[in-house]
Amino acid sequence: MKKILCALLVIFTIPAFLSGCAKNTDYASYISEKRTDIYMYSDDSVSIKIYVSEKENPYNSDGIKGAMTSLTEIFVALPENREEVNVSVGNANGEMNYRAVENIYYLSLSNGGVSGDSAAVTLTYGEESNSYTLLNVRDDSVMDCESAVKCVTEHNPDLFASLTENKIFKGEIYVRLLYDEGCYYYVGVCDREKNINAYLVDGVRGKIIANKKLNG
Q1: What pLDDT score does 13 carry?
Q2: C-alpha angle with apex 80: 78 to 81, nearest 5 degrees?
Q3: What was the pLDDT predicted at 117?
Q4: Is the pTM of this model over 0.90?
Q5: Parts of the chain with a pLDDT under 50
C-alpha cells in the first residue's frame, strides 16, 4: 500500500513541479522575432505597407534565441513598373528591389526609426516624387506582443511546462502582428527539434482563434 501511495505522490508531484517552474519563467524574454507595428496607406495609384520588427540575426529556427536587431520592411505596389524606385522613411532611405512574383517593390532596413501613430514616406522614381502618411493599424485597444504570448501560455500551459526545466525555457517564440480588417497575432512556439506550435490570437480580445502543429 505504501508503494502505491509513493507512486501516486510522484505522479502528481512531477506535473505540479513543472507547472511551478513554468509560472516563474519569463517567456517574453524568449521572443526571437517580434513584429510590433504595421503602417499602411492605399489609394487608387499606390499601396504602401511597413512592418516594424525586432528579429534574431542571423535568423535560425532552432529553438534557441540569438541576438536581436531592429528591422523595418517596406512594401510598395505601383500601377506600373518603374525602372528605379527610391524610398525615404524616418531616418533612412534606399533603392527598392523589385519582386516580380509578387509585383511589389521591397526594401529592408536595419533601423528605419519608424514609431508612433504614423509614418511619413517619400517615393521617388525618375523626375517624380510623392509623399504619403501611413497610419499605424495598432491602436490603444490592441495588446502588445508580450500580452499575446501570455494568452498562449494560459491557453496551453502544458506545452510550456513540458519545455521548461529549472525555470529555463527550451525553445524560442515568434510573435508577428497581422492585419486583416482587424489586428491579430501569430505566435509560434519552436522547440529544440524545430517543431512549431502555431497560434492565431485575436489582438483585442486575446482569444485563441486557431492553432496548428508544424513538425520540424
Answers
A1: 46
A2: 95
A3: 95
A4: no
A5: 2-19
